[in-house]
Every structure is written in structure tokens, then in C-alpha cells.
Design goal:
Blueprint: H1 3-11, H2 18-30, H3 35-48, H4 52-63, E1 78-82, H5 90-100, E2 105-109, H6 119-123, H7 135-145, E3 147-151, H8 158-169, H9 176-188, E4 194-201, H10 210-226, E5 230-237, H11 248-259, H12 267-282, H13 289-301, H14 304-315, H15 322-329, E6 335-340, E7 345-350, H16 352-364, E8 378-380, E9 388-389, E10 394-400, H17 403-416, E11 417-420, E12 430-434
Helix pairs in contact: 1-3, 2-4, 2-8, 4-9, 4-10, 5-12, 5-13, 5-14, 9-10, 12-13, 16-17
């Protein structure tokens, strides 16, 4: 086999065998496939698409291009993946909640991408926490705590790492087939038995329309199940932030309020329970999604999830007393400025992407690879669609490193939150289930 003939067959829609796709993935990992050939493969896949069998084969081939973890544990090995949104800190709640119920969660997560925040960046807002750990330590934390949220090592799906970098510079990032194989190859390398997917749709999501979200969710679910991992997806609303904060330490604060019983009525809490309920059904730990959601909510309310979170934080290098003293431990920004509505009306629209980019420009995300993140900055007290406002009503609070940065963020915040007099059609938190 050779890369040129494989690319030609994909270009001409002749169909690729599992052996051809496996050979190409191994070539991506080893370097035998050149950057030019990888780019040509990505463009052919983007323009012509892959069949469902080809998508499964590419996912498995990229998974198998590196290390695949095998577990021998007394409970099911499960995980969750989100396509990214604003104020989405579900992973920090769900992983310890599931661990408290007897599941094991080896969560290999990512950093901020574009306007969306990253789970690892949020977790590392806790002083001392380091998410880059060896496989041996990863295994030890999962086995002892039940959950570990870590970054991928270089040995996890190296073919995907190579192809992802090529896609980023060849305008092929949007390919649903390649997105699907990329997400799942890394997730399945963690040795999962069940997976729940949170596919966001709306102004703060990468998928703006329901058609786009349904196409991605359908591809992810069918491919994961075809690869042998029991999987379902929820399409969830991102036309407004999931939490009232956006920014790393600020979102951790909301997580801690949910874990310690201060706020158990939020959209963040509800979605965590809903996703967990789906996952417990897949894992055989609940007869139905409502029963599973109640179990997850119970572990959050009774303190057992908080206890697992505390142990995970300590194992990753954070303070042993973080759950008891989180208000003292998290960093705070030197400039805090409240922004008021300035008029009567109601919140009729929220540009989630604009809010996310405001946090990025404050220093809470990356404009380019290698940028340092300021964990203390961001936005808090954000309103929800339909909220009534008067001139003195806060539209949010800006947490910034300087007065100049706060002024820029205020302009962005006012532009992102639209106040009007018309009625608002508020979408449901969970739009539909696929699986």
C-alpha cells in the first residue's frame, strides 16, 4: 500500500478498505505519510465524505495508532464529552458524581478551543493542580478515587494529533467525519464501556443550527456504537450560557456551589444530572434516564460527589482542604466592575460566542497556541433569556486584570446581551436525545 493510491481512491469515491485506512493511520503516526499527503487525505474526506464503515474504521485506526488503556475494575468504565459551550463546567460535577455511585471515569479532556472554555483550564485554576500526569498515575487515581480528569499524553491517538494539526491549516476542520473520528479516537483510547455526548446548538456553540447538531450527534453515536462503545447523545441548548459565569476560576466557584449544596437548582446542575442519567442507563446502573438522573442529583446533594472531587484535586496536586476552603483558595482578579442594563425591558438574545471571546480577550483563553491563561478573569452574574431588567439591573460583573481590559469587556458584554420589549421564545435545555 502507499499513501498516493489511498488518496486517489478517496478522491474518486471508490471506497477504502479497513486495511487501507489502518495503513494510512499508522503512516500518520510514524511519519511515513507526509504533511502534503495528510492534507490531501483531509481535503478529499472533507469534500467527498466518508461512509459509515469508513468513519468507524478511521476512528478505530486512529485509536489503535497509540496506546489503548485496558482496565480491570469492579465497576463500569464510562465518560462524557461535550462539543463545547459557554459556562459549561459539567465535567467537573459529573465525573465525581459518577465515581461516588460506583462508576469509574478516566476522563481525558481538552483545553479551551476558540471561544469555548476548556475543562483542563478550569481545573487548573485550582492552585497546585496539574493535569499532565503519567499513565501510571492516571491509573492509580482512577482506581483509588474513581475519577481522574487529565490531559492526553503523546501516546494517545498520535495519528489524530497529526491529522488534527494538518486540518487546522488546510481548512478541513469542519468535516463532520473527521471531527467524529478525532473526538472518538481519543475517548475510546481510554478503554470506555459507555459514553454520553453533549452536542451543543445555538449562538454559543460551534453548531449553530439544529440540522448541524443533529448531523454531528448522529455521526458520533453511530460511529461510537459501531466501534463497540455503548453511546447516546443529548442535543442541548447553547443560546445562553449554561452557567451564570464564564471564566476558569469563576466557573469552578459555581461548581463548588453545586457540590456543596449552595446552588442545586441551576441549569448546570440539571444538565449534569440529565447527562449522568443517560450514562447510568448505558452502564447498566439505572433502569431509566430519570432514575439515573435522580441518582446523580442525590450524589451531588449528599456530599459524596464533593468528597470524590476533593480526593481527585488532592491527587492532582491541589489543596487537601479545597472543598472546605475553596473561597480562599481560588484566585481573584484585581479589577471587578459591575455593568448595569441602563434601560427597561427584557433579555431577548445572548450572543454566546461574543461572551466567550470577551473572556478570551480578558486573558481567560488563548488567542494563539502557547498563550498563558489568567485563571482569575471572566464574567459573572450573567442574565438568562427572558429576564426582566430595569436601568439598575446588573447585566453581569467583569473580572479583569486592568481597567482598560475591563472597559473593552464592558463594550463586548453590552453588545452580546440584547435588551428589547418583545416576547422571548426560550428553548428547552435538552432539545432531543439521539441513540
Amino acid at each position: 500500500m502507499d499513501a498516493r493510491s489511498i488518496i486517489a481512491r478517496l478522491r474518486d469515491r471508490e471506497g477504502l478498505s479497513r486495511a487501507e485506512i489502518s495503513w494510512f493511520a499508522r503512516g500518520l503516526a510514524s511519519g511515513e505519510v507526509t504533511d502534503a499527503q495528510a492534507g490531501a487525505f483531509a481535503m478529499a474526506a472533507c469534500l467527498n465524505g466518508l461512509s459509515s464503515d469508513e468513519r468507524v474504521a478511521l476512528t478505530l485506526a486512529m485509536r489503535d495508532s497509540g496506546q489503548v488503556i485496558a482496565w480491570d475494575l469492579p465497576g463500569p468504565v464510562v465518560d462524557k464529552h461535550s462539543t463545547g459551550g459557554i459556562g459549561d463546567a459539567v465535567s467537573l460535577l459529573l465525573a465525581p458524581a459518577l465515581a461516588a455511585l460506583g462508576a469509574y471515569v478516566p476522563m481525558v479532556s481538552g483545553r479551551g478551543l476558540g471561544h469555548t472554555g476548556g475543562t483542563l483550564d478550569k481545573l487548573e485554576a485550582i492552585p497546585g493542580v496539574k493535569t499532565e500526569v503519567s499513565e501510571e498515575r492516571f491509573r492509580r487515581i482512577v482506581e483509588s478515587v474513581g475519577a481522574a480528569i487529565v490531559s492526553a499524553t503523546g501516546s494517545i491517538a498520535p495519528a489524530d494529533k497529526r491529522l488534527y494539526a494538518i486540518r487546522d491549516v488546510t481548512a478541513t476542520v469542519e468535516s463532520i467525519d473527521l471531527i467524529t473520528a478525532s473526538i472518538l479516537s481519543k475517548k475510546l483510547a481510554a478503554g470506555l464501556e459507555a459514553l454520553v455526548l453533549d452536542v451543543k446548538v445555538g449562538s454559543g456553540a460551534f453548531m449553530k443550527s439544529m440540522d448541524e447538531a443533529e448531523a454531528l450527534a448522529g455521526a458520533l453515536v453511530s460511529t461510537a456504537n459501531g466501534a463497540g462503545c455503548r453511546t447516546t447523545a443529548l442535543i442541548t441548548d447553547m443560546n445562553q450560557p449554561l452557567a451564570s459565569s464564564a471564566g476558569n476560576a469563576l466557573e469552578v466557584m459555581e461548581v463548588m456551589e453545586a457540590l456543596t449544596g449552595v446552588d442545586t437548582g441551576s441549569r448546570l446542575f440539571e444538565l449534569t444530572a440529565r447527562l449522568g442519567g443517560e450514562l447510568l442507563v448505558l452502564a447498566g446502573m439505572a433502569a431509566g434516564a430519570d432514575e439515573g438522573a435522580a441518582q446523580v442529583a442525590g450524589s451531588l446533594r449528599d456530599g459524596s460527589a464533593a468528597e470524590r472531587f476533593a480526593r481527585m484535586v488532592a491527587e492532582l496536586g491541589g489543596p487537601a482542604d479545597f472543598v472546605e476552603r475553596w473561597r480562599d483558595r481560588l484566585p481573584s482578579a484585581p479589577v471587578v466592575r459591575e455593568v448595569r442594563a441602563g434601560r427597561n425591558g427584557r433579555v431577548v438574545a445572548i450572543d454566546g460566542r461574543a461572551l466567550g471571546m470577551a473572556v478570551v480577550h480578558l486573558g481567560g483563553g488563548r488567542l494563539k497556541d502557547g498563550d498563558r491563561i489568567d485563571p482569575s478573569v471572566g464574567l459573572s452574574g450573567l442574565p438568562m433569556l427572558g429576564d426582566e431588567v430595569v436601568p439598575e439591573t446588573p447585566l453581569g460583573t467583569i473580572h479583569a486584570a486592568s481597567g482598560q481590559a475591563a472597559e473593552r469587556a464592558e463594550t463586548a458584554l453590552r453588545e452580546a446581551i440584547v435588551i428589547g420589549d418583545e416576547d422571548v421564545d426560550i428553548p428547552p435545555l435538552v432539545c432531543r436525545s439521539i441513540g
